[in-house]
Amino acid sequence: MIEQRANTANPPDPALKAATLGLLAAWIAHDLEEVATMARWSRTRVPVLRERHPRVPERFWRSVTDVDGREFATAVGFMGLIVAAAAADGLRTGGRSAFYQASLDGFGLHGLVHLANSAATRGYTPGVATSPLIVVPFTLWARGRLRRAGVLRPTRARDAVLGLGLAAAATATAHAAARLIRRPALVPPGGCRSFTPHGAPADHRGAGRR
To answer: How far apart, in whole angstroms, are the C-alpha atoms of residue 201 and residue 186?
Structure first.
């Protein structure tokens, strides 16, 4: 009689585990750079860019400079929750999750956008250092692992658009949530206090004097 062995589930592929949870690790490394450099960059570099590109609408520059450090860090925290959810869904599904794969694609394309921004501004922009070192290489490596495992979805132009759209929507949602949490704390009950671009109280001594 031939002895039948019990059916056991295949152990999880370590490479797929690294490709899914690694998305969160790579994102953390990338955004630590952004958090560490954004305030100084917006204070020292944006005025130069504003003068160099006078046709760029002022509201664009204000959207960069009006975010204080704590609000930006809060937005990064919300974005981290979204990336963590995508990585966890990728791990749960063995890399098959459409949410995870779209997030991975968006992460990689986001790195290319950083490189394009730096080329356009002819200088450093927050996040550009880790883009060629971590963001793009990790994305290519993870996609290769998914392909070898036979779970990578076909790559089409609309998938790239979806990935970028997901990244943009997640970023906008994170910043909107951060504003809802941080902005009320910046304005006292009287509502007459204003702030400089980085959240420091503006000096109104002498306001209204003739």
So the answer is: 9
